[in-house]
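User: Just a sanity check before I run the rest of the batch. Below are the structure tokens for the first item. I only need the designed sequence back.
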């Protein structure tokens, strides 16, 4: 500091060497800053995160968490209807024999219902007996009424026939006999009057006697006229009136018989229907009583076989899907709820949930290695024995975006150390390669739908398409495009991966061949032409990358000139006008 002076609080440099050193340092800083800011994208390979492609054994596997469960078990469920509570419960893990009491459920309500049902059954039985007797009475009364109606009809028919063939001829004959008698009486009275007149003239008979004989003639003449009138009335009026009356009585009796028969049938049918109803009700009451007794029997759950009692809540796979409280005395349970598991063998399995993203790798029969958290250092071998055909509905209900498939991995041999409910890790071996080239999965991106990597070679970065195989979520197999020892970027530029064709799926590498891709494009063009109402026209081709980039820059530039985001700069009316036209419901 001998060459430096301080004037007015400032440091003054007088040595030319110091000034030169400061200038050189400043230039170096400027150059470094320019390299960092202006040419930051042109980094050397030594500054990037890379990985050297390796060749060797590669195992493709799927690792999932699971729960140990018995492979063969008896599931004991609550078969009481509705909800009930547990009165007594066997201790978990207890060894039980066939017929031992496992669970006792509260059945006090059923006991009261049983008494009420027995009373209802007695009433139904009495009503059934009464309906049976009523049917017999109805059938007897119906037959009696029909017999009376038939007899009345028979009498009416006989009365009609009797009058026509008997009573009328008799009355007619009686009237004629009466006329004949009256005529004889008149003749005798007239003869007597003639003799009386002669005797009166000869003074042998008094005038009184003569007048009496005259009166007798008049009386006889009147009686004859009355007899003739009776005959006329009989022939002209009485006969027809009586015939009509008897015929009417016959028709009324006939219709009364028809009504009686109909009413009798109706009464019998009604009595039979009432008997059928009472019979069905009686049978229903018997069934209800038997059901209540059966429910009472199910309140005592006995062990169907020898085994170890395991609570169902303890054996649930969990994963946050089941919030039921553990089984205990006083706990409330519902119908069809699983209560206890009874393993029937020492063989076990691991229940795992396979995510849909790895489902295509897993198939039945694949080997699996199982490790249990509670048994460190031990591994168990098994195979995939079951894959659910549909995703777990409970997981979908808890999280609609999570779709997992319940699967079972059967462990080989007897595994007495494993206990139900233990947490485990299951590694399903999909494929094993003895000699494969592999790199980390994050080094592979898709450019225009094709898998590619960025290879660092001679200080430069080269984009290269590759053919990939399976991955194990860590390493991915390279079939073609990368050789052992080549260096790849672990952090490839995202802007390259973002350059996708507007056709999306068409150029995403999902088409099996160019011919299938062309056929798919043709079908899409035909569908678009039909939707637009055109029959012919040039097929719509996707914009190339450079043209799309220019359009994006123009759109962003126009928005900046207006001082607003071009995606949000339009008014609500303008955005509404840009919506595709659809049906009234869509609008």
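Assistant: Here's the designed sequence for the first item:
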């Amino acid at each position: 500091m001998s060459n430096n002076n301080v004037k007015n609080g400032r440091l003054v440099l007088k040595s030319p060497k110091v000034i030169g050193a400061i200038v050189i340092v400043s230039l170096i800083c400027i150059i470094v800053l320019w390299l960092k800011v202006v040419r930051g994208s042109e980094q050397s390979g030594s500054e990037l995160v890379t990985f050297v492609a390796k060749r060797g054994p590669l195992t493709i596997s799927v690792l999932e968490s699971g729960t140990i469960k018995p492979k063969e078990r008896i599931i004991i469920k609550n078969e009481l209807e509705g909800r009930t509570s547990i009165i007594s419960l066997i201790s978990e893990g207890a060894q039980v024999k066939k017929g031992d009491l496992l669970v006792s459920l509260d059945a006090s309500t059923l006991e009261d219902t049983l008494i009420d049902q027995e009373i209802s059954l007695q009433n139904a039985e009495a009503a059934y007996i009464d309906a049976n007797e009523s049917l017999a009475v109805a059938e007897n009364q119906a037959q009696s009424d029909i017999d009376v109606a038939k007899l009345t009809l028979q009498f009416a028919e006989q009365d009609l026939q009797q009058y026509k063939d008997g009573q009328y001829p008799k009355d007619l004959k009686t009237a004629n006999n009466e006329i004949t008698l009256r005529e004889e009486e008149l003749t005798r009275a007239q003869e007597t009057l003639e003799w009386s007149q002669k005797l009166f003239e000869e003074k042998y008979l008094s005038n009184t006697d003569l007048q009496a004989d005259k009166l007798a003639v008049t009386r006889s003449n009147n009686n004859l006229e009355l007899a003739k009138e009776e005959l006329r009335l009989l022939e002209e009026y009485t006969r027809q009136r009586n015939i009509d009356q008897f015929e009417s009585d016959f028709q009324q009796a006939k219709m009364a018989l028809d009504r009686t028969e109909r009413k009798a049938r109706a009464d019998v049918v009604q009595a039979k229907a009432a008997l059928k109803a009472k019979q069905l009700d009686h049978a229903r009451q018997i069934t209800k009583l038997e059901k209540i007794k059966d429910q009472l029997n199910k309140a005592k759950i006995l062990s169907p076989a020898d085994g170890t009692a395991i609570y169902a809540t303890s054996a649930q796979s969990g994963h946050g899907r089941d919030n039921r409280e553990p089984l205990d005395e006083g706990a409330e349970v519902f119908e069809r709820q699983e209560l206890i598991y009874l393993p029937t063998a020492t063989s076990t399995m691991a229940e795992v949930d396979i995510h849909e993203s790895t489902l295509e790798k897993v198939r039945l029969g694949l080997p699996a290695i199982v490790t249990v958290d509670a048994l460190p250092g031990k591994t168990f071998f098994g195979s995939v024995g079951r894959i659910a055909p549909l995703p777990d509905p409970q997981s979908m209900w808890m999280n609609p975006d999570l779709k997992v498939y319940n699967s079972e991995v059967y462990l080989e041999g007897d595994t007495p150390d494993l206990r139900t409910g233990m947490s485990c890790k299951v590694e399903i071996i999909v494929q094993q390669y003895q000699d494969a080239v592999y790199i980390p999965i994050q080094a592979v991106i898709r450019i225009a739908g094709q898998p590619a990597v960025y290879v660092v070679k001679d200080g430069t970065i080269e984009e290269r398409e590759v053919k990939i195989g399976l991955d194990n979520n860590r390493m991915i197999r390279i079939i073609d495009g990368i050789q052992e020892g080549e260096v790849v970027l672990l952090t490839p530029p995202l802007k390259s991966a973002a350059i996708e064709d507007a056709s999306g799926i068409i150029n995403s590498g999902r088409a099996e061949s160019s011919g299938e891709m062309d056929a798919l494009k043709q079908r899409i063009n035909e569908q678009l032409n039909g939707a637009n109402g055109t029959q012919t026209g040039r097929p719509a081709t996707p914009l190339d990358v450079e043209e799309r980039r220019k359009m994006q820059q123009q759109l962003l530039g126009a928005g900046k000139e207006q001082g607003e985001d071009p995606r949000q700069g339009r008014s609500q009316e303008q955005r509404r006008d840009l919506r595709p036209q659809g049906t009234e419901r869509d609008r």
